[in-house]
Amino acid sequence: MALEANFLMDGSASSLKKDFKNSTLSPSPSFSSIPVCGGTISLQPQPLASLFNPNPRNGRLLQLLPRCAIAEALLLRAPLSHSCRHRSYAPFSSAALILRFPPNFVRQLSTKARRNCSNIGVAQIVAASWSDTPPSSAAASASASPIAETEVGGDGAAALADNPVQSPLAAAEADPKAAALAAAFLSSDGSLAVHAGERLGRGITTDAITTPVVNTSAYWFKNTQELVDFKEGRHESYEYGRYGNPTTKVLEEKISALERAESTLFVSSGMYASVAMFNGLVPAGGHIITTTDCYRKTRIYIENELPKMGISATVIDPADMDSLKSALDQNNVTLFFTESPTNPFLRCVDIELVSQLCHSKGALVCIDGTFASPVNQKALTLGADLVLHSATKFIAGHNDVLAGCISGSEKLISKIRLYHHVVGGVINPNAAYMIIRGMKTLHLRVQHQNNTALRMAQFLEEHPKIVRVYYPGLPSHPEHHIAKRQMTGFGGVVSFEVAGGFMSAENFVDSLKIPYIAPSFGGCESLVDQPAVMSYWDLFSSERTQFVGRDLVLSERAKYGIEGNLVRFSFGVEDFEDLKADIVHALEKI
After folding, report:
1. Which uninterrupted H or E stretch holds 569?
2. Are residues 273 and 418 in the same domain?
3. Which of the chain's ends, N or C, has fewer CB atoms near its CB within 10 Å?
């Protein structure tokens, strides 16, 4: 079996043949040398395996697929001697460096080779600079270089199988879980946020730097056998848009890498992530434990919807470990669920201690880390089984998309995924792309927001018109000691109570010029709201006991600690001094 590829260069035609029978590539007799830049490239027969060595100089791989541009590959791999302008290319054997051509030559060669290749774009030129490396250094460097895992067919595969050593990148591509656990050369959250899921094991073959958006509702199979192979796990692909998408998979692998998780499921919203988690893991008649301070819609779901399935709940203070122990002893608890930090008072749960207590009784632990973000806190490394985020907030970071995600072991996420496949709640691939793009700056945004929020909390705590500040980065916070131990930053949200009542808070908020009055947090734009209005206004209308001017006295919200003078401020990426001046001006109005 032979495969022939033709290309034109400097007006000369050449034919190079790939012979799988003897695993040797040979130049055609009429084309044994090429004049270039006043020198000559001499082509010689080469073992097939020599075509697939990575470039040890820069770690990149010459990627070849079946029916590739053989001519282009051979030019990059054949032993040669060439000089031009007194610059010498180091001659090399099958284990030595890839030839480095002048940039213009490489670009011309790649363009012309691909133009005449029957399968355009499947061979990549990766060397494009001069090399002054002496032969001895080149050989030493090449001998230390691993063989790249490359897709080949026929007897060529056997030739490559003799050397099982892989580069870190090839190993990550071969094992998808390696991407989730993070390769050694991506050790920081910043690098993981930029590259995880894309440089490591992207599910589709493309030369694009940016992950493409795959807009499709279904995926096709070449024949029934391929479908059967897919169903039985021998063929990797997708079936239906509700069950998976290549763009979304990149996003899931990126979060898995940041959270040090085996698997991640991305869904349409953070609230749906909570619902899918409860329904996928807690059996009918089960019991859960949660905390008093939390997102109100989550509380409503726990109080109103879970009982319809016979699921009961115990509610405790985030710091009350005695109540936690008692609830674990008295109930057959399936799951402990809490936010950390919580909404809106930013209470922090001792994740390590809670995990130990719950695991001793066979209960799972799920932490909603939305207010922390994966940059500031990694609940799984502290002992939690699951970590959940409203990706709408810090992860996406631009106030332009809704999404949620939940990460953990493959075993647990698979159970939640089964529920998700039945019910829906699918994230749109365009939204997934926008989150991927937003995550490129996640660590930069969060670091800036951490700094702004901490400085502003310190300033507000000293201001005479501020009664109290709630921020885990302050020593006055009740769980500051816990936050210091389990967080690397304290987040971009600060809650505080202004002097006076509801009207004082209203005057303050309305006098601000920079932040928008809006729900949500974690985006580039600063947002501000009064929780008493934004989240609890229905209690004002149905359960108010009296009006005092416009101050409202409520019995129901009092048990949640939501006072009329409470303000929640989400700091964006604006300049600190601009925000401070705006806040000072607004405080002067009360």
Report:
1. strand 566-570
2. yes
3. N
Please classify residue 588 by burial: count the beta carbons closer than 10 Å to its beta carbon, then call 0-12 exposed, 13-18 middle and 19+ buried.
exposed
Residues 6+ positions from 426 with CB-CB distance below 8 Å: 241, 242, 267, 268, 420
CA distance 510 to 181: 46
- Determine, yes or no, domain membership for 210: no
Residue 215 lies in a domain: no
Q: Output the pTM of the full model.
A: 0.67
Instruction: Please tell me the total count of domains within the chain.
Output: 3
27's enclosing H/E stretch is strand 24-27
Name the pLDDT band for 69 (thresholds 50, 70, 90): very low
Query: Which among 166, 196, 223 is the end of a domain?
Result: 166
Q: Are residues 290 and 387 in the same domain?
A: yes
pLDDT of residue 175: 54
> What is the chain's mean pLDDT, rounded?
76
| Residue where a domain stops, chosen among 133, 166, 199 | 166
Are 561 and 495 within 8 A, CB to CB?
no
> Which pLDDT belongs to residue 402?
98
Q: How many helices (H) and strands (E) does the chain have?
A: 22, 22
Establish if 240 belongs to a structural domain. no
At residue 154 the predicted structure's pLDDT band, cuts being 50, 70 and 90, is very low
Higher pLDDT among residues 441 and 3, named by residue:
441
Q: Specify whether 508 is located in the same domain as 572.
A: yes
Query: Helix axis angle, 321-330 relative to 351-360, nearest 10°?
Result: 20
Structural domain that includes position 371: 259-441
CA–CA distance, 315 with 301 (Å, rounded to integer):
13
481 and 373 both lie in a single domain: no
Calculate helix-pair angle for 442-461, 576-587, nearest 10 degrees.
30
Do 283 and 397 have their domain in common? yes
CA distance 31 to 15: 8
CA distance 563 to 543: 14
HEC secondary structure over 465-483: CEEEEECCCCCCCCCHHHH
Task: Identify which of 125, 123, 108, 116 has the alpha carbon closest to the alpha carbon of residue 36.
Answer: 108
Look up the CATH number of the domain holding residue 458.
3.90.1150.10
Report for 90-99, 195-204, 229-238: range of highest mean pLDDT: 229-238
